[in-house]
Sequence to fold (761 residues):
Amino acid sequence: MRPLPRFRNLPVTLRVPLVMAGLMILLGFLASQSVLSALGKVQDARLSETARLHVEGLSVALGPSVLRQDVWEVYDILDRARSAYDGQRLLLSIVADERGRILAATDPRRAPVGEAVAEFEEGAAPPDAVRMTGDPVLRVAAPLLFQGRQIGQIVTELDVTDLLAERRNVSMWLLFGNAAATALLAFGGWLAVAKILRPVGALVSAMDDSQGAPRPIAESDIPRGDPGLSRLISTYNRMTTAVESRAEAERRLAERERFVSLGRLSSSLAHEVNNPLGGLLNAADTILSYSDRPEVVRQSAELMQRGLSHLRDVTRAILDENRLDRVGQALRPEDLEDLKLLFEPEVASRAQRLHWNVEAGLAGLKGLPAAPVRQIVLNLLLNAGAAAGQHGQVGLDVTAGEGQFLIEITDTGPGLGQADLGRLLASGPLPPGGGVGLRLVHDLVSQLEGEIQHDRVGDKTYVRVTLPLKDASHA
Amino acid sequence: MKSRRRALLMGLAAAAAPFVVTRGWAQGPALFRFALTPVFLDNDAAVISALRAALAEGMGQDIELVQRRTYQEISGALLDGSVDAAWTCGYPYLQHKTELSLLGVPVWRGQPLYQSYLIVAQDDPATALSDLRGGAHAFSDPDSNSGFLVTASDLARDGQTPDQFFSRVIFTYGHRNVVRSVAGGLTRSGSVDGYVWEALSSAEPDLTARTKVIVRSEWLGFPPMVARADRMDEPSVMACKAALLGLSATAQGTEALKLLSLDAIEPGEDALFDGIAARIAVLSGG
Fold:
């Protein structure tokens, strides 16, 4: 089963001529077989005829001499028949009497007079049944009939070396001829098929070379003469444009997601700004009303200072969120503090409880880029917050160690639906509807060569993100 | 008168049908029939045709050369008159000594004598007749001197017969066939006319090269030309004798003798065959 897949892996421009060559070889083999079989039949018929004529001729000539058991006469006839016979086909002729004793042979040294003829009858065939067996010497045995009665036997050895050589020659010519013809046709077929399939080859290489981004084929390379192929390549070109457009759209969506996250925070952040403002106005009123009481003024001024510094922190966190991806800074503990600052108002607005545990120190965060990690954590927190609902619980655990940076987000919401899991865990096409926040998390984690795990234990949903620390632990 | 008419008829027959030599025409007294034996290179048509032409020229009449397979057939034909003369062997001549007379004896290599050869295959280690015990042997003819009598009488001296001494005895009815039999391996050894073997070694050296001579007999009377003793005075027989003895004097005769590797044909004497007679005595005397 293994060679087949290998064969399938070959380029189609090689496979088609190979298949053709294989069929040619098969055809050549069958043709050769039929030629050889026809030749064999002709040779067999020739051989059989030779043997039959020889035996019949000898029977007529030998009859009276064999009846008289006249050794010399039998030898004389055999000897003269041999020298009169064309060629050297008859190697040995033996005549035996009816008791199977040799009367005479063309070579009396091989077949002495008086010996049993049985030894020479081994493997002998009747004249009508003599066939080429591949043996250079064939034996024929026939009864010696005279006046309708069997009076002895004739055994003849036929030399068929020339017939074998003829057969071998024909085989060799067939072999070479067929091999040459097959090679020529296979080569021609390869050229023709390669020419016909060149656009397909271009299509395949355009798809292979692109490393995920299919490359369109130049208009000049489209074979206008072949409507099918030209339509195929045009369709492919349209498809590559569509894929490019889609990738561009996804890139833009991901770009915007950052602002979407901030947008989702805007109302709680507005409260976050608005709440201190009331306190600040009160403090300003108090200073105006009790400007002669320095301790009250000091107290109010301190109050105002705290409120303003909180507002400064919030605005700075928002600014950082917008700016970080452009700078490409490394992740610091402050980034996680920023996220807490941004997310806390969201938790407060839903009267939720927030569990916030960051164990990783500065050293543990080293080597991770700030922007994608912040985006991952913020998106997951926003989802968890939305899922947990009023009075729910949201948690964040960040730990680092053994070359890993682990983020675990928990919520008491109803759990992620199939569509959301598809966005978060898989790379398949996005289901219609829904946002791109979870898919963005998936893509960012993939870029950082990390993993995402989802778990639901009791009424809690766990999303764990594991990111490899490349330089930190060893640096 | 009678002989003139016969000569006339014969001349007519020769002019009208020179190639008609079948027995159907033997009723006429004209055609002279001369029988040949397996002593010859029996496959050599050129030799036979040259001899026929030379004899016809010498006799002044057409003749028929009759070939028979065995000496026995030739002797029979001679005695019953179906052939007028024959080139036979010393052994059958002596067997029918009282009925036959010599017309002439060929001269080979300067003398009217030849030898019998005992031959084996080229690679055979045998060097004497006694080494061939238990092997197969080829004779040419049971009435042949060189092709049977010599070997059989040699065995008879030791009190053996060919059938006892050899595992198998075959008769090939031709000296050339004896050589083929030994060369082809059908028999281990053979008894052959030395004249024929020597002639073959020039004409078919590939054949004789596969054999070798291990024993040569004493010199014996060359196979003679004979006719019936009671017909020796007949003009045709006398003409035949004259033609035979005069072969070396004519161009055609010389050509025929050359093809036969012979020098001439001389009158010969019965004493030439004393050696053969001695061997017959050994064989029959046991």
